[in-house]
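Running low. Invent one:
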Amino acid sequence: MIVYEFKVKGKVEQYRKVDEAIRTFQFVRNKSIRFWVDNRGVKLSELSKLSAVLAKEFEFANKLNSQARQAATERASFAIQRFYDNCKSNKPGDALSPSHLRRETRLQCSPKNLGRLNKNEYPRGSSTYQNQPALPSGRCANIQRVPDYEADQQNTSLADSGGDNATTTPTDQQDVRASVFQGEACPNFSRVRPRKKGFPQFQKNNRSVEYKQTGWKLSDDRKYINFIDKCGIGKLKLIGTYDLHYYQVDQIKRVRIVRRSDGYYVQFCIQADRNVDTQPTGKTIGLDVGLSAFYTDSQGNKVENPRHLRKSEKALKRLQKRVSRKKKGSNNRKRAVKKLGRKHLKVSRQRKDHAVKQALCVVKSNDFVAFEKLQVRNMVKNHRLAKSINDAGWSQFTQWLEYFGKVYGRVVVSVPPQYTSQNCSDCGEVVEKSLSVRTHICKCGCVLDRDHNAAINILSKALKQSEYQLSTVGHTETNAWGETDLYLIWGNSVRQVDSLNQESHGFLSK
């Protein structure tokens, strides 16, 4: 599947119609989530029928193309299926911050939510609501939470007698909250974070509407697109350099209108394979990504880390101040928010452009590329390095490496990152060192830059891993151009590593 994106040019009234279509698309998607929540156990195939029901019930929903409404229900189905898959695989979610945890605890342990034992909820401004005990920040991790599908079985009454007629006093409520703080599972508190495993959420600010193969029509010169449903968007001019004449209209499976800070865009999802024939170079490379340098390869070459966010922080801070000084709901605030959004969009585009160019250069220049598969999601929990890690864009870079590897027929292998920096690339001895130590010095005489040593270890690991996969019957994922070529490259890589180690020995003797 190939995605081509064009910027569109239209009138103000057309943009207003696009915004209405986006809100309708969001409405159908949220209604599908609500239908699934209220009818737990319903088949996901039933959600597609809901779009026709909503079209009959709501006039504005009927204006949207029928297949666009089906695409909205499909988005809801994907979110629900992802939640089911996360539950089956016991995938953990993001941890709550202490402030959010205190807020949700207060809401869930209110008189209304404590098993709905007391239907007369105390007003939020009353002393009973305000005098609820605060959650100690140091004990947040001890609170037990139960997934929503398990909480349904545990949702029993807290009172001895049970039933809706039972009541609880403020003292009882404080005891229940105290038991929650001590780590005991409260039936309704277990519902505080059902989205920990990716529970489907209601969208508040959707930015796109998606059509399938109906509801739109391309002009003969492929420079205009006309949306012909009842939303009244009309004809929009396409601004871009891609040539749609190369593909048939039947190959365009989806058309998506996206709203961004700098305007509106149309994306075409084309069913086609992209393959580029290239000549083998006979080179291999191992990459170690980092913060001081964007990456260091197994030859010792470094690519500078551009630090796009750090360079734009001063401008972002100034624009954010302008937003905070404007009155909420005013047109001046909306304009300030747009300027801030355009600046953030520029930073994200700079990061993507750098990742694409570096990945393309690496894949074109080498037949075998190895990188370490980092768990960035866990690494950003270190709040001293989280901003720099996110700014580097390691995950985006590795994703483009794998994509270009498939396009250009290169072998791209990921290896686990354990001990790539600690092991000596010459003798294999473990040399423990902290992050502040940037030079690898081993007893065997190997002296290398820390990242250079890690890149050599990554390449060695990947070659051994690929050799094992080639010897496995029926495994042909990494064998892009034959076993003989890969073994030849493996021998060349070993000789390269040996030569680098000899140079490091000579440097140490001097």
